[in-house]
Amino acid sequence: RLMLDNFTNRLSNWKEEALRNREKAVKAIVWGQNAVKVRAALKLPGDQPIVMTGHQPVFFHPGLWTKCLAASYLAESIQGTACHQLTDTALPAEYLHYLPEVEDNGKARMRTLQFFKNKEFIDQEKTTPYAMMPAPDHAAVKYIFSEAQTYCPLAVKTAMHGIEERFMGDLLKNATWNEFHLSTLKYLDALSETKRLYLEAHRLWSSDPYYEFLAYWMSHLPELSEAYNKALNDYRAKYGIKHDLTPLPNLKFENWWFEIPFWGVTKYNQRQSLWAKNDGKHL
Question: 233 phi and psi, to 5 degrees?
């Protein structure tokens, strides 16, 4: 009962904070743009709160499902809509996937999952964002399930009952990594009777609000680079973080070139960092 009361109190605070945040966001104008304009361009509902979650489109695990279910619960409690955004500019190699296994002597180990058996795709995933990757190999995922049934702890094996057939069927129907990832989230929603919208980050790149945001950054390179780095430095100081790459590296400045927080993608779908220079007349 005590745990339930604590949860209820926390949810009440959570709801109040969400509604307060919505009130601020609806009124705010940032670089000439407001929430109503951006939502309309992205075809998101403008007349209700949106509870947004986001993550790289990795192979789903319980932590991600929990986050999405929490968003659904909050959205329902404030008459809003849950929306999950895929940060699909990330590379698969940056977010390795693991499965717990048990050795014969009882010790635990983490097995790194491989989603491709095709050498071309194994090489491609080192430099290609998720948004441009095909769905995992059917044979590779079949092997993952087979190994899991052999070496995983009993609790994992039990939890997998009935899931493999659904996953493998979804895999055969989907051509891209994003499509397969979203099918796993829709499976959760079907099981839990929850609903949400889905927003793939790469679809933002062709929207007018994104172009306006990009143009503003390019025309204010010095001050925005300084503000970006100050925010990162303040965050590290506040939480005692010593690592220069956590949570993100600072933007660099070399020979009057500013590193900018956007990725460029080559014609071979390889991701590269970008730099810009603006003398007031030319970009």
Answer: -65, -40
Contacts of 224 (CB under 8 A, 6+ apart): 217
**pLDDT by residue (tens digit) across 264-274?**
888 988 989 99
The residue whose two tokens read 């092997």 is 143
pLDDT of residue 161: 80
pLDDT digits (tens, 9 = 90+) for 60-81: 778 888 999 999 999 999 999 9
- For the chain, give me the number of helices (H) and strands (E)? 10, 10
Return the pLDDT at 6: 64
Ranges of residues in the chain with a pLDDT under 50 are none
- Cβ-contact 118, 137 below 8 angstroms: yes
Please tell me the distance from the alpha carbon of residue 135 to that of residue 145, in angstroms, as a whole number. 16
| Token pair in block for residue 128 | 């290609």
How far is the C-alpha of 225 from the C-alpha of 229, rounded, in Å? 6
Start-end of H helices in the chain: 2-27, 35-41, 62-77, 119-124, 138-151, 154-160, 163-173, 177-192, 208-219, 221-239
Q: Which helix (H) or strand (E) holds 87?
A: none
Residue 163 is predicted with a pLDDT of: 83
Q: What is the pLDDT of residue 5?
A: 61
- In angstroms, rounded to a whole number, what is the distance separating the alpha carbons of residues 7 and 142? 40
Cis peptide before 247 (omega within 30 of 0): yes
Nearest by Cα to 266 from 132, 73, 172, 84: 132
> What's the token pair of residue 90?
């990330």
Say how far apart CA 165 and CA 171 lie, in whole Å. 10
CA–CA dist 241, 67 (Å, integer)? 25
